[in-house]
């Protein structure tokens, strides 16, 4: 069950993670498993929530878990907004030796930056925006040949 959660969050956390070399994917899974376990202490989710995530649906209980993971990874800033700079920094870390993949990752991130313009009611907490980021990443992935 944790493996499924790690997979869903890892893909959402790193829009471009499916393009990273196999050994880097394993490193990412380890890194994000740690982040998820830490965040899950404050934002627990149920097996039903995990089933929804497997079906690319964001359950209400998982929104703050994702916000925590996004903030911890540097993908979300302290104002609860998508950090394009943070995501691109991660892309450069893992894709610097593959300019084509790096460019696609940056374009993918750019395609989802509009989530920062959406009105949310939880302010800098970021839970609602985390759901928007998740939704955008699921919707935009096919346009960039990413599998979510």
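^ structure tokens above, recovered residues below v
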């Amino acid at each position: 069950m944790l493996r499924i959660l790690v997979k869903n969050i890892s893909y959402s956390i790193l829009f471009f993670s499916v393009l990273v070399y196999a050994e880097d994917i394993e490193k990412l899974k380890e890194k994000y498993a740690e982040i998820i376990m830490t965040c899950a202490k404050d934002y627990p989710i149920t097996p039903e929530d995990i089933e929804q995530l497997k079906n690319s649906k964001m359950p209400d209980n998982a929104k703050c878990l994702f916000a925590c993971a996004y903030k911890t990874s540097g993908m979300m800033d302290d104002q609860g907004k998508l950090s394009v700079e943070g995501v691109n920094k991660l892309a450069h870390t893992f894709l610097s030796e593959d300019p084509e993949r790096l460019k696609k990752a940056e374009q993918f991130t750019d395609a989802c930056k509009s989530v920062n313009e959406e009105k949310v009611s939880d302010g800098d907490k970021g839970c609602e925006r985390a759901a928007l980021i998740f939704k955008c990443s699921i919707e935009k992935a096919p346009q960039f040949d990413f599998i979510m």
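Residues 13-20 have pLDDT under 50 and may be disordered.
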